[in-house]
Specification:
Organism: Mucilaginibacter boryungensis
Number of domains: 1
CATH topology: 60s Ribosomal Protein L30, Chain: A
Radius of gyration: 18 Å
Number of helices: 9
Distance between the termini: 42 Å
Pfam families: Gly-zipper_Omp (PF13488), OmpA (PF00691)
Number of strands: 5
InterPro entries: Bact_OuterMem_StrucFunc, Gly-zipper, OMP_bac, OmpA-like, OmpA-like_sf
Order of helices and strands: HHHHEEHHEHEHEH
CATH superfamily: OmpA-like domain
Subcellular location: Cell outer membrane
CATH class: Alpha Beta
Protein name: OmpA family protein
Helix content: 55-70%
Oligomer: single chain
CATH architecture: 2-Layer Sandwich
Length: about 220
């Protein structure tokens, strides 16, 4: 089902971007077409694919894209930061996606079952992540909490929100500007594995952190800096 949603989302992107570029498309260079896709459709398409694919963090990364040559500049900077995070935050799964980075923590690394207090090892991981975020200030960060389907919808949503907020609070206490951080709780509604199995439920209990370029980085990238 998840694969089908992603395929549908990808097809929809093709339709939307084709529609955007169709009028007078022959007058655009490849770079201009890329910039049009990123800047013109990024927010709408990013939000759509994020919803369709069942991944809010992915939607945030795609929605923040600018495309074209500027996007390549941003991507190069994100490559460097992703490599830094992989080296310094051993408890995280780091994925370079488009013009951003998705950092995923299994909730078992961060929290005890049904709790929101951070474990000692979690604090160490987040302190290292905070250093990277502080050293790369031209980014915005979205923290998304997720649960499995055990318990009520209301409880799971509340737990996911409080866990995302706990991660944000610790990052702020570790030196990250709180104005750069936003949180969301998705409860059980964005699974990445089968909740019918213990392993699947374990994978679904997670916190995802999307790192995207802020307006200053985008402006500098467009100027070729």
């Amino acid at each position: 089902m998840k694969t089908l949603r992603i395929k549908i989302a990808a097809l929809s992107i093709a339709v939307v971007t084709t529609g955007l570029l169709a009028p007078g498309c022959n007058s655009f260079t490849k770079t201009q077409k890329g910039a049009a896709i990123g800047a013109g459709a990024g927010g709408v398409v990013g939000a759509f694919i994020g919803k369709a694919a069942g991944n809010t963090a992915l939607g945030a990364v795609i929605g923040g894209a600018v495309g074209g040559t500027a996007g390549a500049v941003i991507g190069h900077k994100m490559d460097k930061q992703a490599a830094e995070i992989k080296q310094t935050v051993p408890g995280a799964t780091v994925v370079r996606q488009g013009e951003g980075i998705i950092v995923k923590f299994d909730s078992g690394i961060l929290f005890d079952v049904d709790k929101t207090g951070l474990k000692p090892a979690a604090k160490s991981n987040l302190e290292n992540l905070a250093k990277s975020l502080a050293n790369n200030p031209q980014t915005n960060i979205l923290i998304v909490g997720h649960t499995d389907n055990t318990g009520t919808d209301t409880h799971n949503m509340d737990l996911s929100i409080r866990r995302a907020e706990a991660v944000k609070s610790y990052l702020v206490s570790s030196g990250v500007d709180g104005a750069r951080l936003n949180t969301q709780g998705k409860g059980e509604i964005e699974p990445i594995a089968d909740n019918a199995t213990a392993d699947g439920r374990s994978q679904n209990r997670r916190v995802e952190i999307a790192i995207v370029a802020n307006e200053q980085m985008k402006a500098e990238a467009k100027q070729g800096q």
